[in-house]
Amino acid sequence: MIPGATAASFLLVVILGAMSPGPDFVVVTRSSLTSGRRAGIAAGAGIALGVFAWVVAIALGVAAVLTASAVAFTVVKLVGAAYLIFLGIRAWLAVRRGEYRDLGETPAVKPKGARAAFRQGLFTNLLNPKVAVYFLALLPQFLPADGSTLQTLELAAIATAGTVLWFVTLAVVVGALRRFFSSGRVRRGLDAVMGTVLVALGVRVAAGTA
Description:
Low-confidence stretches: 102-109
Mean pLDDT: 81
Strand content: under 5%
Helix content: over 70%
Structural class: mainly alpha
Number of helices: 9
Shape: globular
Oligomer: single chain
């Protein structure tokens, strides 16, 4: 078992890492603003599952193979970059169509559901190989020299819990502020900004400078 103090320290580091601005942050924020708190929480849950999958991959040695192979790493990175750009372009298209209504009106287009938001969060995280690099560097600092696979899985559970904790908090806060962004014009501006950020992140990841 992982000692309590070690587990608490690891949880804190994971939460601080999750709080750093990046694709996950943008996806949860946009889901919460455009489709409500439930969609934001679902996107956060998808991201957390992606974190769990990466840590399990590390325990099985899969992530080490990925990071050791320049070709595999580049392929996953470029697919992830393309996905971020795709999400950004979708936001831009929503702006172009102008299909916005104030929250008090009947929407012309059904908001994105929780299932779609969950998939978006999951794919955004799974297609970011730098998450694997991050945890490959982080886990040895919290595992004993003779650490077992079970202890690595314990840390995976802690990482998942920390990720869920932060992104659920973010979704709830942004969802509560959604009323302040009830104007269709304001939400159109937010989509334009979020779309630009996502495309910029995708280009940055593809360029290998993120």
